[in-house]
Write a structure and sequence with these properties.
The chain is α+β, with helices and mostly antiparallel strands. The protein has a single domain, classed as Gamma-glutamyl cyclotransferase-like (Hypothetical upf0131 protein ytfp, Roll), CATH 3.10.490.10. The chain contains six helices and seven strands, in the order αβαββαββαββαα. A five-stranded mixed barrel has the order 1-3-2-4-5. Bound molecules: benzoic acid (BEZ). The site of benzoic acid has 10 residues, from helix 2.
Length: 202
C-alpha cells in the first residue's frame, strides 16, 4: 500500500529555528545526495541496523509490484554506518516528498567517524507503516530486488549503490553485502551463493 508521510513530517519542529542541521543517510542518500549540503562526514548511529525490509511503490517498484529498499530496525547493541550531511532546514521539504512512502523523521545522536558527536535527523520507515514488507529469506529478497524496477530505475541499482558506498566507507554490513552477493549470483545463474547449489528448474 502507498502511504504518505509528508504532512506528518512537516508538523515536526525538531531543529526549528536552527540555521543548519545534520541529516544521517543510510540508503539512497548514500549514493544520491542530489540536494545542497554544507558539508558531509561519514558517521555512525547506535541502536539501529539497516535492513532491506521496506516496500518501494514509488521509486524502485510500483503500487502493483513494490521493490525492496532500506530502512532501519531497532537493535540496541548495533551500530549503523552512513553519511551525515549538514543541510539548511529548507532542504527537508523536497526530501519529505522524495521519501514520503512511509519514512518519518527521527532525532538521533550521530558519531562522526573522525571524532565528535551531534544531534541529527534520520528518516526511518517503522514496522507499523503500511508499505513495510519485513524480513524474508535472503534468496527471496535477492530475487525480489533483481526483478523489481520503478520510476527511479532498477531496484538492483539501489542495492549496488548502497553496497558500493558502504565498501568505500569501510563499513561492515553483512546484510547488505549478503543480499548483494545473493542477487549477483542469482543474476549470473549460479543460484544460492551460501550453499553453492544452483537452483534447478523442474
Ligand atoms: C537515507 O538514505 O538515509 C534515507 C532512506 C530512506 C528515506 C530517506 C532517507
Amino acid at each position: 500500500m502507498v502511504v504518505d508521510t509528508v504532512a506528518i513530517n512537516r508538523r515536526s519542529n525538531a531543529f526549528a529555528g536552527e540555521e543548519s542541521l545534520w541529516l544521517f543517510g543510510y540508503g539512497s542518500l548514500l549514493y544520491k545526495a542530489d540536494f545542497p549540503f554544507l558539508e558531509c562526514r561519514p558517521a555512525r548511529i547506535r541502536g539501529w541496523v539497516r535492513r532491506f525490509w521496506q516496500g518501494s511503490h514509488d521509486h524502485r517498484g510500483s503500487p502493483e509490484a513494490p521493490g525492496r529498499v532500506a530502512t532501519l530496525i531497532r537493535a540496541p547493541e548495533s551500530v549503523c554506518t552512513g553519511m551525515a550531511y549538514r543541510i539548511t532546514p529548507d532542504v527537508l521539504e523536497p526530501l519529505d516528498v522524495r521519501e514520503k512512502n512511509g519514512y518519518l523523521r527521527f532525532t538521533t545522536e550521530l558519531a562522526f567517524t573522525d571524532g565528535g558527536t551531534a544531534e541529527g535527523l534520520v528518516y526511518i520507515a517503522t514496522e507499523d507503516n503500511a508499505a513495510f514488507l519485513g524480513e524474508a529469506p535472503m534468496q527471496e529478497m535477492a530475487r525480489h530486488v533483481a526483478r523489481s524496477r520503478g520510476p527511479s530505475g532498477p531496484n538492483r541499482d539501489y542495492l549496488l549503490g548502497v553496497a558500493r558506498v558502504l565498501r568505500e566507507l569501510g563499513a561492515d554490513d553483512p546484510h547488505v553485502f549478503g543480499l548483494e552477493a545473493a542477487m549477483l549470483a542469482w543474476e549470473s545463474g549460479s543460484g544460492d551463493p551460501v550453499s553453492g547449489a544452483g537452483e534447478t528448474s523442474a
